[in-house]
Design a protein that fits this description.
The complex is a heterotrimer of chains A (490), B (659) and C (100). Chain A has 490 residues and is mostly helical. Chain A contains 20 helices and two strands. In chain A, α13 packs antiparallel against α14. Chain A is globular, with a radius of gyration of 22 Å. With 659 residues, chain B is mainly alpha-helical. Chain B is 74% helix and 2% strand. In chain B, α9 packs parallel to α14 and α15 crosses α19. Chain B is globular, with a radius of gyration of 31 Å. Helix content of chain C is 79%, strand content 0%. The longest helix of chain C is centred in the last third of the chain and has 32 residues. The radius of gyration of chain C is 17 Å and the shape is elongated. Chain C starts with a helix and ends in a 13-residue tail after the last helix. The chains are: A mainly alpha (490), B mainly alpha (659), C mainly alpha (100). Chains A and B meet through α7, α13, α15, α17 and α18 of A and α6, α7 and α27 of B.
Chain lengths: 490, 659, 100
């Protein structure tokens, strides 16, 4: 279905960004209300809707080609929800420019999720870096200069290589047909891609691979993530970890998987080893952390490993001579993990942020028995950590279960590595809970306050949403099923 | 088996009743939590509300039982998976046991928890737990089953750590969660194997869900005929057994239960004696056909893990001095008997007609009664003795707390299997069965011996505990001033005592109730067998011998147990240290190996991988440092550069033929 | 007429002198003189070729070039005067502000 309202949907956050700049000291209130309104506006845009503004042939292949597909709708919805939660959580005294940056970020994220033209996709992809850089630079922790620069350059390197890939594809198309056309629907299809020589195909895949896997992040391209998630403001971490990583995942599920028919066994097995490495490595690294926020950062990286695992399963299907429909369970699990993790990780960072504000420290050994002074936080934190380790009844379990069960058929005994990772994940979560919330109270902390209402209520809402999605995953899950079948058809 | 589906099916009375059995306590949970927190005056009603809710569940379960039909309701959940309820004799029996015993324990808890300021949290969590356990036994799909299984594990974690400010309790809760998590992930893999094994063969079934209980039970025979079908069934069975071992504390995942005794005694009674730990046994029984059609090694694995645990835990119970820990090891040991009974059914499948579910579950239910009884009487003792748990500080309590000690005595007799208590009918049946199978199958010899010696050990530690606690002179101030607890705590004990005494009557009725399972298969109906009389009374003779020996050491003190302990020196230390298993898991694997690897990896991440990233930055920096020396600021240098460049350009152009 | 090769040689020599001067002198005035020599060598070259071919365009070009050279010398001297005011000398060594 064609609809002009998609343009409006896209432009709205940009307009909101300007409005919040003009709101002066009421910026937090106005921004939160606008963000909430935006969620309601997003809801009716059920897939599939698309809109094209320019004909790509006329403008050197660039066109404004937007689409809400079965994959992007949950992500757009997730974006609006997380930004809304972050705005409510955020302390208003940080200034109006922060909320403005958040809206601008929302604008570029939605642009990424909706773009169907590669150049447009690239523009929005890079546009995300601008507000993020400033958000880290202006309000970050002690290492903010180093961190902001590292983030910018590291992810930019990947993006630029993606640009090279895009140009290779575009030029190839031009030499074949005499026109420029950068639409995803034209370029990333079996029919066109089969024209590429193996060397070019390799280069193209390499560019996209680097861009997406650096953004995800996956080991070994992950080292920007712990610094960024730790040094930023709590709400910035929520948004970075909850949404920016989904950009990379989105790219994987919409663009990278379409290369499956052209890749040999080495790609599948390489991705598989990356995935297993990510899951186990991040779990162990998280176990050793002494800073609570850094531990949460590594847990986020570990969760993304499941997405990599799901992708690798799709690549392995032709290698093992199995029908691609067998990979649907794992694929749907990976996509669901995007959605679930995006909801869960703000709870984790929110809890840590509360502790940091209340006690003034993030070091685990300085905490202990916090339940005594902060019972509300204890409830939220236990719920969040249990969701993060994949407790059934919460959204994360549906994702992890689908991926683990779905991948057994393809990797049989290697699954033991995955479940070993799961045990380590459970261990560090429970150990952290025990050291921070339970046990005798650390009297050196003195008298501390509990979670503030602006922190508590958004977290509770997220916990409830996570539980509801965990018990009734069907609405969101069926969208991903649709998308999986659509991909499988190619 | 009647099947219902869709909204119409959901609205049938039996289906609604089944759902309410487990939904009601779960719904009560948030109400009690929030109301108790907001209104302090509500707290004293928390216990009554929860207990009544569970009583309603019990009535509903009895109603389902009275319908005497099996039925199955399913509805689509996500992907292929369904959710629903599956009612057959196994689930009904379990549901009635769980709700009934839970009801009695809750009644006791109202008195035991007393004036604790968090009592609403306690009762809310136990309500959630009971609902979860009922969900476990009524689930129609293994994913739903797993959901409730973990829910129950979560409540166990929360309740063990109920007094979270005690570091021992917090640490015990963490250990329980992590050890059961190891089992749980094995269970997930087992479900994965089942999923892929059953997916290709169920196209003709009423539902396309490969993990629905209905499909697993009815199509296991078809899976066996697939290539490697038997192997995959066995692999699934072994992995699922791993999960069951975690929850039911079988070797080697038994290490969490003794520590779990840090929680309130009513928690130990409810979760770690009667209900949650039986979930593992239920799991194996629920997917019985998988093991029937699997390669035989799966059945042997079940049998020997059960038998070995029964024996091992028995030895450890002998050297403990904490009354709750003795009972904890006893629980582990008895669970081993239940598991072994199921294992015997698998191993002997080719020469018996029938299944051993009835036998195993009968012992499960009898054990639930007697263990709850024993824990509750221990709870009454702790309540009276201000939480003294060391049995060496008790003594002479039969004079001070007659009702409690009588209840404990009945429990002890049932535990050791002294006729005519129900324990004789349940436990000795398993031992006799193991002899019967051994007759046909020499590989089962060790199982029979382990179970037999286990019975002897059971008697020894049980009566060691009983004589030390009940007889002699009070050995502490608290013991001197003990008295029987209030009536709200005595009534459940009395009810459980009566049940323990008379439940033996129901044995044959119980077995015939289970005969409707697996109708049409060769293994339907409870297996019947006979063995020579002199073998059959062997356990009873061992019981008498055990009581006598216990009497010598702990009753009349003619022989001294300390001398025996010193005499056996290193053996005694080995057992007392729980065979160093706990030490291995906690100190070596967890603390040394895993944490060491974690630290190595995090340092590697910081210095090597990040080092490479920073290194690239440093190289870029060095490069620019080198190159910027060309900016000398002296114009003539620049002019020279221009001319030089022009020259190079001209020369290259000449070489390439441009000019 | 004077053989072409002689004029071209002179032009080349002048070019070399001028180039060398630009690259190596230390005084500002000497730099300007070198620049003049350089420009004039090019002019000479063009004139030589033009008269040989009888093409008046070249001569015209040289005339304009001389005018521009004069203007440029004037600008150069203006810069030197400003420099003198700054550093009381016209040495080129002191012009290192744009150094790394």
């Amino acid at each position: 279905m064609e609809s002009f309202y998609l343009m409006i949907l896209l432009i709205l956050p940009l307009i909101f960004s300007i409005i919040s700049l003009l709101s002066g000291k009421y910026s937090k209130v106005i921004s939160s209300i606008l963000a909430g309104l935006f969620i309601i506006i997003v809801l009716p845009f059920l897939p599939v809707i698309n809109y094209t503004l320019f004909n790509p042939e006329t403008l050197y292949g660039i066109s404004i080609n937007l689409e809400i597909s079965y994959l992007s709708y949950p992500l757009v919805l997730l974006t609006s929800i997380v930004i809304f939660i972050a705005m409510i959580y955020q302390d208003g005294s940080i200034g109006k420019s922060y909320f403005s940056y958040l809206f601008f970020l929302e604008f570029s994220l939605i642009g990424v999720f909706m773009s169907q033209n590669l150049i447009l996709f690239y523009i929005f992809w890079e546009l995300v870096l601008i507000p993020s850089y400033f958000m880290i630079l202006r309000w970050g922790g002690p290492k903010k200069d180093y961190t902001a620069l590292k983030f910018l350059i590291y992810t930019h390197v990947g993006s630029v290589l993606m640009l090279v890939s895009i140009f290779i594809l575009g030029y190839n198309y031009y030499s074949l047909t005499g026109y420029f056309n950068f639409n995803i629907g034209t370029l990333i299809t079996n029919q066109f891609l089969s024209n590429l020589s193996p060397l070019l195909m390799f280069l193209v895949m390499m560019g996209f691979f680097l861009a997406f896997f650096i953004k995800l992040p996956t080991v070994p391209f992950h080292t920007w993530a712990p610094d960024v998630y730790v040094e930023s403001q709590t709400t910035s971490s929520m948004v970075f970890s909850g949404l920016l990583s989904k950009m990379g995942a989105f790219g994987l599920f919409s663009i990278f998987v379409r290369f499956v028919p052209f890749s040999g066994p080495d790609v599948g097995y390489f991705l598989l080893s990356l995935a297993l490495l990510s899951i186990v490595y991040a779990a162990f690294a998280a176990l050793a952390q002494k800073d609570l926020k850094r531990m949460v950062a590594y847990s986020s990286i570990g969760h993304m490993g499941f997405i990599t695992l799901a992708i690798s399963i799709v690549f392995l299907a032709p290698v093992l001579n199995l029908p691609v429909s067998d990979a649907y369970l794992a694929l749907e699990g990976g996509m669901f993990m995007m959605f679930a993790h995006g909801l869960i990780v703000p709870i984790l960072f929110g809890s840590v942020g509360s502790i940091e504000r209340s006690t003034g420290t993030r070091a685990i050994r300085d905490m202990g028995g916090l339940t005594k002074m902060m019972p509300n936080l204890a409830f939220v934190m236990v719920a969040g950590f249990l969701a993060s380790l994949g407790l059934p009844g919460m959204a994360g379990f549906v994702a992890e279960f689908s991926v683990v069960v779905g991948s057994w058929y393809f990797i049989t005994y290697l699954s033991f590595i995955v479940i070993f990772g799961l045990v380590v994940v459970a261990s560090y979560h429970i150990w952290a809970l025990q050291r921070t919330l339970f046990g005798p109270y650390n009297e050196y902390l003195g008298k501390i306050g509990d979670m503030l209402p602006r922190e508590f209520w958004p977290m509770i809402v997220l916990v409830l949403v996570v539980i509801v999605v965990g018990i009734f995953p069907s609405p969101v899950y069926s969208m991903f099923s649709h998308y999986a079948q659509f991909i499988g058809g190619m | 088996m009647i099947t219902y589906t869709g909204l119409n099916g959901f609205l049938q009375t039996p289906v609604l009743a089944a759902f309410f059995i487990f939904l009601l306590p779960i719904i009560i949970f948030p109400f009690v939590m929030v109301l108790g927190k907001k209104f302090g005056s509500f707290k004293k009603y928390a216990g009554i509300v929860v207990t009544s809710g569970i009583f309603i569940s019990f009535i509903l379960a009895y109603y389902i039982y009275s319908l005497n039909t099996d039925f199955y309701f399913y509805s689509t959940w996500f992907n292929n998976f369904t959710w629903g309820v599956y009612i057959d004799p196994l689930s009904v029996a379990m549901a009635m046991m769980v709700s009934g015993v839970s009801f009695l324990i809750h009644m006791f808890a109202i008195g035991y928890i007393g004036k604790d300021p968090n009592k609403h949290v306690y009762f809310a969590e136990t309500s959630l737990f009971t609902g979860g356990m009922l969900g476990v036994v009524l689930s129609a799909n293994m994913v739903m089953f797993f959901l409730f299984w973990e829910l129950v594990g979560l409540c166990s974690y929360l309740l063990i750590g109920f007094w979270w400010h005690k570091p021992n309790a917090a640490s015990a809760a963490k250990k329980a969660f992590i050890v059961t998590r190891v089992g749980d992930v094995l269970l997930i893999l087992g479900l994965a194997v089942l999923y892929w094994s059953f997916l290709p063969v169920i196209s003709s079934s009423i539902t396309n869900d490969p993990l629905s209980v209905y499909n697993i039970i009815n199509y296991a025979s078809v899976v066996m005929k697939q290539p490697d079908g038997q192997f995959y069934l066995a692999l699934a069975g072994a992995l699922v057994l791993g999960g069951a071992a975690g929850k039911s504390a079988q070797f080697p995942l038994h290490v969490w239960i003794p520590d779990a005794m840090e929680g309130p005694t009513t928690v130990s009674a409810l979760i770690h004696a009667a209900t949650m730990v039986t979930a593992g046994i239920y799991l194996v029984a629920r997917i019985y056909p998988v093991y029937v059609y699997a390669s035989p090694w799966a059945g042997y694995l079940v049998l020997y893990i059960g038998a070995f645990t029964a024996f091992l835990a028995g030895t450890m119970g002998l050297v403990m001095n904490d009354i709750k820990r003795i009972l904890a090891y006893s629980t582990i040991s008895q669970l081993g008997y239940m598991l072994a009974a199921l294992g015997l059914g698998f191993v002997a499948i080719n020469y018996i007609s029938g299944n051993t579910i009835g036998i195993s579950i009968y012992h499960l239910i009898v054990h639930a009664f007697l263990k709850a009884l024993l824990f509750l009487s221990a709870g009454a003792i702790l309540y009276a003795l201000l939480d003294t748990r060391d049995i060496r500080k008790m003594g002479g309590l039969w004079k001070k707390m007659p009702i409690t000690i009588t209840a404990m005595f009945i429990g002890a007799l049932t535990l050791v299997g002294f006729p005519p208590t129900a324990g004789y009918f349940s436990k000795d049946e398993i031992i006799s069965l193991s002899y019967f199978v051994f007759n046909q199958n020499p590989y089962v010899l060790y199982a029979w011996l382990l179970l037999l010696i286990g019975a002897f050990l059971t008697t020894l530690y049980t009566f060691r505990m009983f004589f030390t606690v009940a007889l002699g002179k009070p050995k502490s101030y608290a013991a001197e001033h003990a008295k029987d607890p209030p009536w709200v705590m005595i009534i459940p004990m009395i009810i459980l005592s009566i049940l323990s005494l008379i439940y033996g009557i129901f044995q044959s009725g119980f077995y015939s109730y289970f005969s409707s399972m697996f109708s049409g298969q060769s293994y339907s109906g409870t297996v019947s067998f006979s063995i020579p009389l002199y073998i059959e009374i062997l356990p009873f003779l061992l019981v008498l011998l055990g009581i006598y020996i216990a009497w010598i050491f702990y009753g009349s003190h003619r022989l001294s147990s300390e001398k025996v302990a010193k005499g056996s020196g290193s053996l005694y230390r080995l057992v007392k240290a729980k065979y160093y298993l706990d030490f291995l898991f906690t100190n070596i694997i967890a603390e040394r190996v895993i944490v060491f690897v974690a630290i190595v990896i995090s340092l590697f991440d910081k210095y090597v991988i990040d080092g490479i990233v920073n290194g690239i930055g440093t190289i870029a920096n060095l490069g620019s440092q080198a190159f910027r020396k060309a900016q000398t600021g002296i114009v003539q240098n620049y002019a020279a550069m221009v001319i030089l460049g022009l020259l190079v350009f001209l020369i290259i152009g000449k070489i390439l033929g441009v000019f | 007429m004077i053989p072409l090769i002689y004029v071209l040689t002179i032009s080349l020599l002048m070019f070399t002198v001028g180039l060398y001067g630009i690259l190596t002198v230390k005084g500002g005035i000497r730099l300007l003189i070198s620049v003049e020599i350089l420009v004039n060598s090019a002019n000479l070259n063009i004139v030589a070729w033009a008269t040989m071919n009888g093409d008046s365009n070249g001569i015209l070009f040289v005339l304009i070039s001389v005018a521009i050279a004069a203007a440029e010398a004037a600008v150069g001297f203006a810069i030197l005067v400003a420099l003198y005011r700054q550093t009381k000398g016209v040495g080129l060594k002191s012009l290192k502000e744009l150094r790394w």
